Amino acid sequence: MTLYLYKTGAETPEQTLEQVASYTADQAIADDGTVYGPFAEGWELSETADCAGTLRADWRADHPSQEQRIEDLEDLMANLLYGGDGE
After folding, report:
1. Residue 39 CB neighbour total at 10 angstroms
2. C-beta separation of 28 from 3 below 8 A
3. Which single residue of 10, 22, 33, 78 could bond 6 by disulfide (Cβ 3.0 to 4.6 Å)?
4. Highest mean pLDDT among 12-16, 62-66, 78-82
5. Separation CA 16–CA 47 (nearest Å)
6. pLDDT above 90 as % of the chain
7. Is residue 54 part of a domain?
8. Where would I find the beta strands (DSSP E) of 1-87?
9. CA 33/CA 35 separation, integer angstroms
10. Whole domain around residue 9: which residue ranges?
11. Cβ(66)–Cβ(21) below 8 Å
């Protein structure tokens, strides 16, 4: 697949990543093993050249960090046990 790397808010890509086999919020890996990344904050990936996609943000939403999972679980437990957010 071809992905486009752009600064958040931009309408044109800074770099085109060709033959990408996989990606995460932090990097993309091409078919030949080339690793693009780690990506800095303020940069986003798109599947379209118009920079309309937010693949990094989507990936982070679909794969929350362990810290975020723990925080969400603590909030859930506080709501179940105490009817509040635990703070």
Report:
1. 17
2. yes
3. 10
4. 12-16
5. 10
6. 45
7. yes
8. 3-7, 15-17, 20-23, 28-30, 35-36, 43-46
9. 6
10. 3-82
11. no
Q: Looking at this protein, which amino acid is placed at residue 84?
A: G
Instruction: Identify the bridge partners of residue 65 per DSSP, sorted by sequence position.
Output: none
Domain membership of residue 87 (yes or no) is: no
Count the domains in the chain: 1
Encoded tokens for 43: 């940069």
* Beta-bridge mates of residue 56: none
Considering the entire predicted model, what is its pTM?
Answer: 0.67
Q: What is the pLDDT of residue 11?
A: 87
pLDDT digits (tens, 9 = 90+) for 6-47: 999 888 999 999 999 999 989 999 999 999 999 989 999 999
